Amino acid sequence: MPTTRVVSSEGGAPPRSSFLAPCLLIFGFLAALCAFCVAYGLAPPLDASSRAAIRGSVVVITGASSGIGAELAVQYGSLGARVVIGARRRAELEAVAARVRGAGGEAVAVAGDMGVAADCEALIAAAAEHFGGLDTLVVNHAMFDDGLFIERDAAALEATLGAQLRVNVLGAAHLLRAALPLLEASARGGRAVEVSSGTTRIAAPFHPGYGASKSGSNGLFRHVAAELALLRSSVSVTTCVLGMIATPEVTAHEGLRGSAYPVGDTARGIIEAAAARLQVAWVPQWIAFGAHLAYASSALEHVFMNNFYTQKVPAYVQRLESLRRDKRKEQ
Question: Do 88 and 113 contact (CB within 8 A), yes or no?
Fold first, then answer.
């Protein structure tokens, strides 16, 4: 009779199947994560009904003297919205207001500091005074910082983090507090939109105050959204998590220009997310992948940020190398 020979794998190479199963699991996990990131928080393009809802609506936009805020104002204007724009620089605001009118919308410019409660209230009041109400509030303003946390003394922290908390968090709170009664009264259904940052999900070295204050603002919007849900409010709350956008601060670094997402596409994504009343939108969509990697592992988070950001800014690389040399000398 023929015999069956059994060959043991002990001491030899592991069977191919022992490698195949975990590889398939990892591949399946990454494929599922990519699919989730593409689908979750992706706003549909504006359709006819969405455009009709925006036409004639009243929109308040902060941080609108340049960059994303200015582009939001112009795009809302091109859709026929009536726009109230706020920022500290009056001349730049007036220039943006002229662009809005040229695009087919109406515009009122209100200069003010979003770190001052009275200025926040005046901006919201301008919407009621000039246009009779408010349908959409877009909190886009932010104060930015640059530098390592470990190099800041108490005075530097007060000057940077203290100011950022006042502008980025308290300013958002004062705007929401003043706007909510008007948003509740909106016949179109009010919308509160937070222009947030990927730094609330992925830790970004060199910008500790910005990341901390934007995380605070994000927490504020989430808690307000929970309250509004309990009250069965008609006001929707949308958080737009932005990646690396081609603003002047980003494009000043040559290494980041190629990776930065266009400002015009960013503004369109925010408008689409607000129109769809999404809870969370990712602009651009790939930032969702990085955020979920960060949830999975802090090591992956640091590799992601180091490769896609820190190593592309020569000044940051030089500063880190200098600190490492100093640390070795101390040891």
Answer: yes
CA distances from 62 to 122, 227, 321, 326 (A): 12, 23, 38, 42
Condensed to tens digits (0 to 9), the pLDDT of residues 131-188 reads 999 999 999 999 998 889 988 999 998 889 999 999 999 999 999 999 999 999 999 9
- The domain 41-322 having CATH identifier 3.40.50.2300: the answer here is no
**Range list of β-strands (E), 54-131:** 58-62, 82-87, 106-111
Q: Is 76 a catalytic residue?
A: no
In 140-252, DSSP assigns E strands to: 191-197, 236-242
Per the DSSP assignment, residues forming a β-bridge with 136 are: 59, 191
Mapped onto helix, strand or coil, the DSSP state of residue 139 is strand
Domain range list for the chain: 41-322
Euclidean distance between CA atoms 176 and 192, whole angstroms: 8
How far apart CA 281 and CA 81 sit, in angstroms, is 22
Amino acid making up residue 188:
R
Alpha carbon of residue 210 to chain centroid: 12
Whole-prediction pTM: 0.86
Active-site entry in 76, 210, 261, 309: 210
